[in-house]
Amino acid sequence: MFRRNEQHRQKSFFDGEHLLPQRLRQRLRGSWAGTFYRQVFCRIDEESFAVLYSEKASRPNVPVNVLVGAEILKTGFGWSDEQLYEQVCFNLQVRHALGLDDLRAELFDLRTVYNFRRRVREYAEGRGVNLFGAVFEQVTDEQLEAITIETGWQRMDSTQVLSNLAQMTRLELIVSVVQVACRQLDDGAQAPWREGLAPYLKGRPQQVCYRIKGDEVDTHLERLGQILVELAAGLRLQTPASDAAALVERILKEQYDLQDDGTLALRSVEAVSAGSLQSPHDPHATYRVKGGTAYRGGYVINVSETCDPDNPLQLVTDVEVAPNQTDDSHLLERSLDRQGERGICVEKVTVDGGYTGPTAERAAERHRVDLRATRVRGRGSAPHRLGWETYSWMIGRDRQPLRVGCPKGQIATLEPGGTKGRFIARFDHAACAACPLFKHGCRVHPRRAGPTLYVRRRTIEVAWRRQQLCPQDTPIRAVIEATIRSLKRPFRAGKLPVRGLTRAKMVVYGSALMVNLRRLHRHVAAQRQQKRTGLLPWETAPLPSSLLDGVHALCAHLRHLYLRVSPFTCFRHATIVA
Predict the structure, then answer these.
(1) Centroid of chain to Cα 344
(2) What is the β-pairing status of strands 293-306 and 286-290?
(3) How far is CA 12 from CA 7, 20, 27, 99, 311, in A?
(4) Considering the entire predicted model, what is its pTM?
(5) SS3 helix, strand, coil % of the chain, rounded to 5?
(6) Torsion sign across C-alpha atoms 136, 339, 485, 278
(7) What are the pLDDT digits (tens) for 98-144?
């Protein structure tokens, strides 16, 4: 039975902070734990998790805000489950951050954390709603409103992370799928091919493949293909809707080709899609090569944060986790859609070239957002040709190209060509004949009807986008790379501690909340310092000139004394004198 947790608001005489001296009590409240308690813990809406519990009168639940807060702290500090539980039991700051100040109160068991995660994961997979994502959005929206942060100008970037998977060869992958499928079948169903399965069920996939010689790999892959066909038939009869049946069907479709005579043929490595299965333990993780680095079995994280220079601090406003094959333009579209649903006003977004393209441009136009790209996709023109961006393009309100101007100022009307999406412009023959660029890099071709320019609609859009680039925004956009490093700091070597898309989203949302928390804590500490001394922590009051002169005179006198002592002593204290 669900019940809200209000007990933390009622302080007890036995609270841990009341047992501390006044100085340490103030220090505890002013630490990150106090900021977490006020800015995150007290803002968590527990009602959204009521769907995970029974409506019947039964034993009350462990406080949801405690469990959610513990998950956020675990991700932010990179703790294991055992380390998290130890911190909750014995760390006074962690207990204060989670509202567990009463040292006599009974704590939850670690098994409760496991069951809570399982319920959140099953609800997300069944209903398509990640409750941790709802917590991130709700808490962040309240923080933005409380501190009055302008969200009109934002910056966006993406990064790659790996799932918590072992790197598998092709043979290891197929053997692991066979082992997973066999666990779903009873002994009677395995009887027809038990003898053929025996070599592949003795040990883990790596141990099985270690005993296979290199020149025998293709033979085993073909044999495993036939076994997979039989397993698929057995799973269709016993458990047609199981995950194992879907894995077998998927691996057959991705790794093998069905011939006309009914036999299976192994696909070449080049013919296997990058979106193919990388591990049976994480079906959503895919393969991608970006920046010359291969990411086998991972996800892409898209981060959007405010960047208005008038803001007292910048906060992460939106986070998206998707299979790493997802294009940046689609991530931008989803981010704008979600922020629009939350009522966040976005007027302009500073991005790099990966976020340009038709999808991103349509999304920006739909949300009336100024897409300020520092670069644009696509290669530049050849050195001996004029770039399309050197021409001036006049486009109507309906995005219909109207006229084009050449680099020398001659203007011509764009008319639809014979093929959809193509345009033709005819220039004055006499003006082109006298132009030094004609036939020397110019895009205008000599034709019988006169000098003619052939251009596609997409070429015009890209050229116009190149003319609208904002290279002056590069320093503003580059700051988000530090945000991404902070977000990935708990993930060692860029590898998530979990598997599966739902669990990946849960830990990334928690890490994003901790990034915002650290910024809020620095902001609150700066305000407190300024209120106490009138100066910010990074500001120092200038020393009086008389005091500086006295310090310099004292240093000169000490240096004179050290020079009169023995050379050994002078050598020992040379650093101090300097």
Answers:
(1) 20
(2) antiparallel
(3) 10, 14, 19, 12, 38
(4) 0.85
(5) 50, 15, 35
(6) positive
(7) 999 888 888 999 999 999 999 999 999 999 999 999 999 999 999 99
